[in-house]
Amino acid sequence: MATGMTHYETLGVSVRAGTDEIRAAYRDRLLRFRDLAGSPQAPDPLLLDRLREAYAVLVDPVQRTAYDATLDQPAAPPPVPPAVRSSGAGDGAVAHGFRFVGEGGAYFRIWIVNLCLSIVTLGIYSAWAKVRREQYFHRNLLFNDSAFDYHGKPQAILKGRAIAFALFLVLSLAQEAGPLPYLLALLVIAIVAPALLIRALRFRAANTSYRSLRFSFEAAYATAFKVLALNLLITVLTLGLWFPKLVRDWRKFTVEHSRFGTTAFTCTLGVGQVYRIFLIPLALFFVLAIVIGIAGLKGGGLFVILLGIGFYLLAPAYVMGRLTNAVWSSSALGEHRFSSDIPVRRYVGVALTNWLGIICTLGLFIPWAQVRMARLRAAHLTLHAVGSLDDFVAREHEQVSALGDAAADVFDMDLAL
After folding, report:
1. Mean pLDDT of the chain
2. What are phi and psi of 79, to 5 degrees?
3. Which residues make Cβ contacts (< 8 Å) with residue 253, sequence separation at least 6?
């Protein structure tokens, strides 16, 4: 790019380009910068500044009109504002979609290096691998043309994993020692687990940001204990019939104790909604058990195996697709509500083809599988905003600044694998 290039030439669009075309061109060039970062062909950082400046001017109708007036060529007609979708609620809300712009090939390079170094270092590098993975998926998730970011430190993740490994080791040794030590170890872990999970959720939230504004997570130990330990105990005593209630309470717990800046999330997910999601897989399970029993008596071993594999692959995907829609569509950030409309058949199809790709490539398809699923989830997630999002983020920045850095006292530990 020459320094005398116009903003249109910098972005590679015509003077009559619409806002959507300008956004797409800007995104494509950002991806090229990211792909070439650190290589000998990496562009001059000044070019990135020019790219950002060009985008900021051309997506703003007022600035674009003023800029066009300075060009020697005839000014382009005033750009037509991009169409917005009505929320349908009659409250004046505007729907803003999410987009995941990562590519399987780009993530494969990160994934294969992470895998090799984790093997060579006997798992120690896995903490650094997680940071690289999280940063890639956060930074390629766009909302309102701005990306999320992840700030976790590998040392904190490694510390959390060491604690998790120690707990697993204690449990294994107690199991070898006999029933009574094993039960005591389980009791201790049941008491400690809620506190550790709160710390892990707090770590993840506080190290996630959007437009430099951090998320946060705060919950009382008693609430976490009730959601996890008590629900799990009842689930065991009811032979799994309480499991949908456990799933609902856990999802609601993680959403309602999260904040973006100073604004809290809410979740109205009902127990009946989750039970209805599990109803079809449960009915199919009983039918499958009967069919397998009959086929087994008649010697249909291969048929039984195929049925079992099919149910194992499809049922979790069906539940996850519907559960994702239910949780997000029941959630809100202050007065701004979310919705998710993933076609369940498509979700199951993507999950199934991902499994087939992973099996046929002996695992090498995993990066593409993860990118495909991230893209599908983001493409069907929407925030119905009441008022200007820019004003909302700016107001949150002011309130957080007044209260101090909410992430300053974050526990430096992440137990998530």
Report:
1. 82
2. -65, 145
3. 219, 223, 224, 227
Alpha helices in 17-153 (DSSP H): 19-36, 45-58, 61-69, 104-120, 126-139
Counting the structural domains of the chain, the total is: 1
Res. 296 pLDDT band, cuts 50 70 90: low
For residue 21, what are the domain limits? 7-69
Per-position b or e across 187-212, b if 16+ CB within 10 A of its CB: eebeeebbebbbbbbbbbbbbbbbbe
Inside any domain, residue 362: no
Own/partner contacts of 61-69, CB < 8 Å, gap of 24 or more, are 67/7, 68/15
**What pLDDT, on a 0 to 100 scale, did the predictor assign at position 297?**
58
Cβ atoms < 10 Å from Cβ of 391: 9
> Is residue 54 assigned to a domain?
yes
The answer to the question of residue 207 being in a domain is: no
Instruction: Please report the pLDDT score of residue 318 as a whole number.
Output: 92
How many residues are listed for the chain in this entry? 417
Query: Which are the contacts of 308, defined by CB distance < 8 A and separation ≥ 6?
Result: 288, 292
pLDDT in tens, 221-274: 999 999 988 899 999 999 888 999 999 999 999 999 999 988 999 999 999 999
Alpha-carbon gap, residue 66 to 7, rounded angstroms: 13
**Considering the domain boundaries, does residue 159 fall inside one?**
no
Calpha distance 411→84 (Å, rounded): 41
CATH code for the domain in which residue 44 is found: 1.10.287.110
Give the integer Cα–Cα distance in Å for 328 and 337: 9
Give the integer Cα–Cα distance in Å for 396 and 403.
11
